[in-house]
Amino acid sequence: MTAQLIDGKALAETLRASFKDRVETLARQGKHPGLAVILVGENPASQVYVRNKVAACEAVGVHSEKIVYPADVNPAAVLAKIAELNLAPNIHGILVQLPLPRQFDEDIILKAIAAEKDVDGFHAENVGALAQGNPRFIPCTPYGVMKMLEVGKVDLRGREAVVIGRSNIVGKPMALLLLNAGATVTVCHSQTRDLAAHTRRADVLVAAVGKPRFVTADMVKPGAVVIDVGINRLPPEEGGKLCGDVDFTNVREVAAQITPVPGGVGPMTITMLLANTIEAAEREDVA
Ligand code: NDP
């Protein structure tokens, strides 16, 4: 069997087209969704992510503000800016690009963002709401995965779901979303014993490890749905291309559905950031 592809790029395009309509509807009511992105330092990957986020906003008519600080900035200056943005009526979403330089306590920064503007969904209040099954903002990457499972018509109720990875930005919220959707969820990590024994039971397998081609065909149950969150850069001797956490070529011969890298979960992450920002503006509209 060759697995069917769940095409994140196409889904992202469809969703972004629908966002334009929502932004226009808000505009007719005199509302303009706005996102503020704070970047500290010159991490090249972070610079690319921030540039892409700002461009994605522009493309659907969401106002964006990029605020850049040098790597040695005093955290107090960033906290003061966040306090200002928390009160700014033209800003509905605030995100601080991670990772931050050493002098920062990320927890303090994330908690400083008003929970109702925390479009990344990392604030403890929003994490708690998600854990209680009543989310306000869903972290963008796992939110994108849930949308992909929806278009793939994957019924999660009663299915075995295995997530490899337990980070706060991907693995943990992913597990909570699958649980909330009715799956029986196992979360694996670096201390898991006999990982393959878990993954082979999975009807739905989500890999968020950060290791190229980590999930091999013998770890996958025939007919499973495999979601590859990983984004890894291969070394120059292997072509320097982007590669997921799943050995795509071989796993696609075992799985029923699979997401590619690139063109899978990646394009969905920024798309769901736009969704969260627009939702924040729509919510304010109702309030
Ligand atoms: P982290 O490094 O924070 O987490 C990786 C997780 O994998 C950890 O929980 C770790 O376990 C686990 N792990 C590491 N080695 C093993 C192993 N041998 N067996 C089982 N589990 C293992 O990464 P992120 O969650 O931030 O990201 C994961 C991947 O997803 C990366 O490739 C990243 O680039 C990508 N990513 C993609 C996004 C997208 O838009 N598509 C967005 C965000 C991330 P432990 O906790 O025990 O250390």
Summarize the structure in words.
By secondary structure, the chain is of the alpha/beta class. The chain has two domains: 30-114, Rossmann fold; 140-266, Rossmann fold, CATH 3.40.50.720. 41% of the residues lie in helices and 15% in strands. The protein is built from ten helices and eleven strands. It has helices at residues 8-28, 44-60, 75-87, 106-112, 124-131, 140-151, 171-180, 195-199, 248-251, 265-286; strands at residues 4-5, 34-40, 63-69, 93-96, 160-164, 184-188, 204-207, 225-228, 232-233, 242-243, 257-258. The strands form three sheets. The chain has a six-stranded parallel sheet. Helix 2 packs across helix 10 (265-286). The longest helix is centred in the last third of the chain and has 22 residues, at 265-286. The radius of gyration is 19 Å and the shape is globular. The N and C termini lie far apart (51 Å). The mean pLDDT is 97. The site of NADPH dihydro-nicotinamide-adenine-dinucleotide phosphate has 24 residues, from helix 10.
Quick gist of this model?
This protein is an alpha/beta fold and 287 residues long.
SS strand fraction: 15-25%
Number of strands: 11
Termini separation: 51 Å
Would you identify the regions where 5 or more consecutive residues have pLDDT less than 50?
Answer: none
Name the assembly state.
single chain
Label the overall shape: globular
